[in-house]
């Protein structure tokens, strides 16, 4: 699989590669040169987008959730993403870990502590500050922001993309292909290129947000461990170290680099969660978690559509809408990456495992780490809120760490966790960006190494741009801007998938687990129930009449 590791081996698609590179340079260089003007523009954009499109982002969330539910439990769920003889490429455990680590990164290490504290100070739904209800809602709301709806958004593009790759046997790793069911041959023209550049821009903006938020966090942890001065140089140093690690990972590709880092971090994260659960107020944390789940389910539709239309207090815009945009911006990366690792699974398997395990994973962080922070604040052990307001998020996270037993060990372990978590998100992104800008690539190949490394470096550069401008606003706005054009793309992909499935499987969808395979340029619908599981050469029954393999 690694035979194509030179740029010459796998040609670069110039018409996508260059516009994307130019777009990165045109945004990050001016931001570095004119930070003040940049942040002014950024603030205005934030206000305009959230003021105008909040309802659309919220509706997209609910619609994605409904669509994914239908995919899992409806007829399309039975479609196998692969030939009948294709076994899943990775074991289910490793697959879920990779999926989780690609989509969840360093941000959870900061937000799981900070978000509930922010919400204690500014509760949702006009609850009065300092009340019992406000505390319960502050513990629950982040679980909504990192729960079923965002995971449904996250995995929506993955399904049409995996369908294109493994059912239709596509040979390019680009999301524009997943829109072909709607646009047909138009995808081969400028429209297809436009979609791919939007996708690349979205990935770059999303990763930029993560970098902008996380570099200060890890710098603060380094500062704490080694007694260093917080400086721009330290931040650059952290970024350089990161770039090296990411470069190592993308250089080694999917199964060696990315999988190794994901597995390592999966284990480390689990240990850190168990440690805080055991060392912290265990019963309080379990009780709060259980309570949050009920509160969440009870209010699911209310909070999913809460636009605060009368009072317009700004809560939904500042929190839910921003979050949905952030997840949407990451969705193309997830789509391509998860599609690439999901060969041999059914649509139901992908959707249910992804949405449920993704959410449960995030809930565990917010229940344990978030609950611990809530406990520290409400019992008055540490005033995290004033640290957050006066010194910022990184300092607050360090303050939480210092309250834990063995903090001399825990802080380095947490630093490593953050460090690797960002790497696993950025390496998947660099891998995906390289795939999009490769001319031809089927689901069994990898993009050229030089191309992968180049994107790791460009992402780091964009991160520096956002760091120079500074401030959460710049970072958040870049997300909103890149997410907006992705909304129609998501809709088109969903329609494409349904059209393709109807075209390919027809009435066979109604009763059987089906798999579509290509033989002699014709599609056949295969009754998967009769076919032996893995590695069987020939399928048992060919049910439906063969039809020509179109697009
Ligand atoms: N999401 C999950 O920085 C990161 O952790 C990547 C962020 C979209 C909020 C994912």
UniProtKB/TrEMBL annotation:
PANTHER family with a match to the protein in the record: HIGH-AFFINITY CHOLINE TRANSPORT PROTEIN, HIGH-AFFINITY CHOLINE TRANSPORT PROTEIN-RELATED
UniProt name for this protein: BCCT family transporter
UniProt keywords, alphabetically: Cell membrane, Membrane, Transmembrane, Transmembrane helix, Transport
Transmembrane segments: 16-34, 46-73, 94-114, 148-166, 197-220, 232-254, 266-289, 321-339, 351-372, 409-433, 453-472, 478-498
Protein species of origin: Pseudomonas benzenivorans
Keyword Cell membrane: yes
Stored NCBIfam families: bcct
InterPro entries: BCCT_CS (IPR018093), BCCT_transptr (IPR000060)
Family: Belongs to the BCCT transporter (TC 2.A.15) family.
Keyword Calcium: no
One Pfam assignment: BCCT
Bilayer topology: Multi-pass membrane protein
Location within or outside the cell: Cell membrane
């Amino acid at each position: 699989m690694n035979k194509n590791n030179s740029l010459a081996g796998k040609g670069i698609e110039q018409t996508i590669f260059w516009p994307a590179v130019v777009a990165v340079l045109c945004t990050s260089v001016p931001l570095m040169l004119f930070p003040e003007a940049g942040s002014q523009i950024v603030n205005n954009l934030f206000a305009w987008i959230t003021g105008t499109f909040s309802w659309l982002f919220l509706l997209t969330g609910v619609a994605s959730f409904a669509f994914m539910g239908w995919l899992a439990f409806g007829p399309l769920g039975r479609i196998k993403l692969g030939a009948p003889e294709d076994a899943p490429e990775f074991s289910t455990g490793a697959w879920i870990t990779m999926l989780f680590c690609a989509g969840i990164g360093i941000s959870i290490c900061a937000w799981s502590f900070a978000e509930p504290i922010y919400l204690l100070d500014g509760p949702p739904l006009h609850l009065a500050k300092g009340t019992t209800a406000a505390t319960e809602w502050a513990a629950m709301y982040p679980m909504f922001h990192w729960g079923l709806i965002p995971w449904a958004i996250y995995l929506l593009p993955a399904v049409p993309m995996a369908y294109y790759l493994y059912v239709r046997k596509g040979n390019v790793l680009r999301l524009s292909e997943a829109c072909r069911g709607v646009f047909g041959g138009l995808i081969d023209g400028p429209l297809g290129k436009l979609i791919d550049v939007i996708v690349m821009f979205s990935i770059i903006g999303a990763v930029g947000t993560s970098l902008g938020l996380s570099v200060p966090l890890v710098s603060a942890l380094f500062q704490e461990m080694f007694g260093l001065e917080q400086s721009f140089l330290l931040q650059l140093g952290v970024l350089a170290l990161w770039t090296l690690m990411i470069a190592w990972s993308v250089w080694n590709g999917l199964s060696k680099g990315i999988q190794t880092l994901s597995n390592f971090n999966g284990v480390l994260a689990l240990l850190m969660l168990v440690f805080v659960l055991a060392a912290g107020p265990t019963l309080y944390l379990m009780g709060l978690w259980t309570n949050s789940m009920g509160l969440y389910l009870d209010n699911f539709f209310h909070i999913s559509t809460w636009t605060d239309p009368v009072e317009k207090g700004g809560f939904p815009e500042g929190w839910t809408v921003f979050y949905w945009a952030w997840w949407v911006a990451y969705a193309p990366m997830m789509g391509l990456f998860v599609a690439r690792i999901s060969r041999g699974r059914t649509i139901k398997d992908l959707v249910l495992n992804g949405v449920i395990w993704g959410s449960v994973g995030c809930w565990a962080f917010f229940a344990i780490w978030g609950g611990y922070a809530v406990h520290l604040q409400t019992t008055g052990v540490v005033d995290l809120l004033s640290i957050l307001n006066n010194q910022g998020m990184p300092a607050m996270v360090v303050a939480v760490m210092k309250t834990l037993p063995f903090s001399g060990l825990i802080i380095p372990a947490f630093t490593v966790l953050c460090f690797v978590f960002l790497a696993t998100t950025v390496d998947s992104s660099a891998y995906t960006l390289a795939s999009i800008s490769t001319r031809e690539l089927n689901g069994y190949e990898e993009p050229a190494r030089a191309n992968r490394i180049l994107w790791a470096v460009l992402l780091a550069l964009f991160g520096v741009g956002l760091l120079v401008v500074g401030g959460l606003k710049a970072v958040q706005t870049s997300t909103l801007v890149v997410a907006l054009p992705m909304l129609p793309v998501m809709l088109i992909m969903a329609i494409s998938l349904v059209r393709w499935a109807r075209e390919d499987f027809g009435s066979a969808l109604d009763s059987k687990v089906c798999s579509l395979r290509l033989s002699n340029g014709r599609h056949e619908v295969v009754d998967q129930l009769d076919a032996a599981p893995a590695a069987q050469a020939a399928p048992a029954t060919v049910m439906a009449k063969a039809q020509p393999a179109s697009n």
